[in-house]
Amino acid sequence: MTLKLNYKGNQQWYRTDSYWDRAAFQMGSSWGPGAKLSTHFMSNNDNNGLTDLGKTYVFALGDGSGFALHHLAFDTYAPSDHTVPGVGTNVIVNEKASYTNTFPNQYSMDFCAATNLEVAGSASTEDFTDAVKAWTDGYYMRSTISMKQQHAGDTDSWQGTCLVYYTSQYVQDNTEGSLCHVVLHDSTATAGPQDFGSSSVIHVPAASWYPPQREGSVSPAGLALTDDKYGITYTPNVVVANVLTVGYYASAFWYQPVSASEYDTMKRYGRGDLIAAYCMQGSGSTSYFQQHTEPMALTGAMVLIAGTAVLASTVMAI
């Protein structure tokens, strides 16, 4: 129990709640399935008022380094937008249904966030800018990634998924690098643990990371695709508080290059191509990678581009 009294004996600050697990023999995380929140009647008069109970709490840090005390502002709110998942049909990465306090199922060790990848063709290129027309035939990708709290250890952290190309079920070809969609935490010093900063589509050359390496010199700041020819659009495209949690999504849309035997910045992906998904997270100048799937073929559908039948695909990825 914690009480702060003024000289008159009036209470100024108080918190008496705690987490406990009757089956535990050592301190663990409040993510454990047996953890219970124990409250005290004095907490009913929390400084946040009667309508915001339980917003001051203590929890054990996931890396075992100690405890943290948080007191959420009374005006914290849940945004009503950014709640729509993607529309693809190929599941590339699934998040775990549950976590435990032991390796390898600890929450802080999971790099993956569910993502949906749509691969298709535009019905027309008539309204494209000259830069986009010179780059693409209208074939595009849209990645929609599930946002979640990040445990990469810094305010500039990121989490996402990379696509790795295979020429056959057991032969990887990363000559032209990997394409990744990452979600970044708000980088301002005062940002909360669930504040979204931005998302980026990045092209990772083989020199920076060659799977299945677990670590690479990879950061969105140095590898993000920003040229106008890609026609990239992001949703959300501004900082949004309180959405790095379950139930919110960030999407990125970009145009793919025309078909070629070799590619400079990104490979063109289509129906029947074999890809494996790697989950990633990182901060500073380093990213860590975790293979999530064996190679799988992208599926697709027929679409029309400028009146011509073109083969396209619709995919789900993380």
Please explain how this structure is put together.
With 318 residues, the protein is mostly beta strands. Helices cover 3% and strands 35% of the residues. The strands form six sheets. Strands 9, 10, 11, 12, 13, 16, 17 and 18 form an eight-stranded antiparallel beta sheet that branches. It has a four-stranded antiparallel beta sheet with strand order 7-8-15-14, with no helix packed on it. A two-stranded antiparallel sheet has the order 1-2. The radius of gyration is 23 Å and the shape is globular. The model is unreliable at 304-318 (pLDDT under 50).
Task: Summarize the SSE layout with pairings.
Elements: E1 2-5, E2 11-15, E3 18-20, E4 36-38, E5 56-60, E6 67-71, E7 115-121, H1 130-135, E8 139-146, E9 158-168, E10 171-172, E11 178-185, E12 196-204, E13 215-216, H2 220-223, E14 233-235, E15 249-255, E16 274-283, E17 286-291, E18 296-297, E19 300-305, E20 308-313
Antiparallel strand pairs: 1-2, 3-4, 5-6, 7-8, 8-15, 9-10, 9-11, 9-16, 11-12, 13-17, 14-15, 16-17, 16-18, 19-20
**Major beta-sheet overview:** 8 strands, antiparallel
The tally of strands reads 20
Judged by helices, strands and strand pairing, the structural class is mainly beta
The coarse silhouette is globular
Query: How many angstroms does the end-to-end distance come to?
Result: 43 Å
Rounded mean pLDDT is 78
Q: How are helices and strands ordered from N to C?
A: EEEEEEEHEEEEEEHEEEEEEE
Overall tally of domains: 2
Q: Count of helical segments?
A: 2
The low-confidence parts are 304-318
The gyration radius over C-alpha positions equals 23 Å
Strand content: 35-45%
Determine the fraction of residues in helical runs and give it as a percent range: under 10%
